[in-house]
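Extended Data, record Peptidase M20 domain-containing protein 2
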Amino acid sequence: MNINDIKKYISKIIDENKEDIFSVSKYLKDNPEIGFKEEKAYDFLTQKLSSLGFEIDNPTEKLPTSFLGKKSGLSHYKKIAILFEYDALPTIGHGCGHNMISAISYGASLALSKIDDLKGDIYVVGCPGEENGGGKVILTNEGIFDNFDVAMMIHPSTENKVYSTSLALDAIKFSYKGQTTHASASPEKGVNALDAVIHLFNGINYLRQYLKDGTRIHGIISNGGEAPNVIPDYAEAKFYFRAKTREYLDDVVKKGINIAEGASKMTGAELSWDYYELSNDDLRPSKKLSETFRKNYMELGIKNIEPDSEGGGSTDVGNVSHRIPAVHPYISIAPKHSISGHTVEFRDATLSKKGKEATLQAAKAIAFTTIDLLYEPNLLKNIKEDFEKNKEV
């Protein structure tokens, strides 16, 4: 079969198995689990992928709910990774649509598993803890992605977009140790740890005017004392620092730490700080791979594709994109700007009529792009060469 015939066959397979594909989204939606505790999702997804002929293993003991599956093709020269996300948010469940991400990736994997003598190997990679810990950071550091030529996934949104960056992120907790005392009877004997946190917030607010556009700093007081008549001897604040590049973010974080140290000196409270989540690098999507997705989106009738843009959030796919060519396109499941991510409304939209249609389209887009990578002469070679050239910029 030629490429067009294979794509027609893939489209037919996905349409014929749509209820099976939707069942993945529904099961995960009905059984939400937060990051690194996705035992049900792990069992469910690995069983379904095993039934398709994927050889499933755990890639690292550091992530018990991660998985790595392989479907060998006729040639082992090309290695394509399809990413799964399946962790949920506290309280609202799959408000970021990771249930749909897994359904999309499963649908693409199902279709590709039915193609005899593929000109390459297909890998399915289970990536836990995207929301609260960065499972892909661990997988990247363990060298798992170094074995693949490209990695890809599609995220639900209210927009169709094939190329969008994301911000590098550091999550830092600042803790202050002071001295407790009666706030009214003997305030002179105390060292107010909460005062240090307040100075920290004020200092960071002053810092904002000196930062480059696109830089974001946002935080909370995660511990501010227990009673107003007791000077708190312990207080802490958690911050997210974000910037367009890892290099500039490192600079911003140094300034934040300097402010935290200044707050310590001003109050006498002892400072300690640490990262409370794994850091995300900025997402650098492959331009050439994104353009392949654009072609397939258009072929599938996906309209209103947004121009290339810079994103405002963060994702651990960013870490992957610094090691191999990677993409993180978006597909619309609701009218533009009608709902927001990380909401109950977004969660429910994943299984709406439009959400289901988008699930099938996205599964086809990943499978079509995989076929292009495996069968089009020089496409993968050009993508990898472009990646190496841009990595040095």
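Summary. The domain at 168-275 is CATH 3.30.70.360 (Alpha-Beta Plaits).
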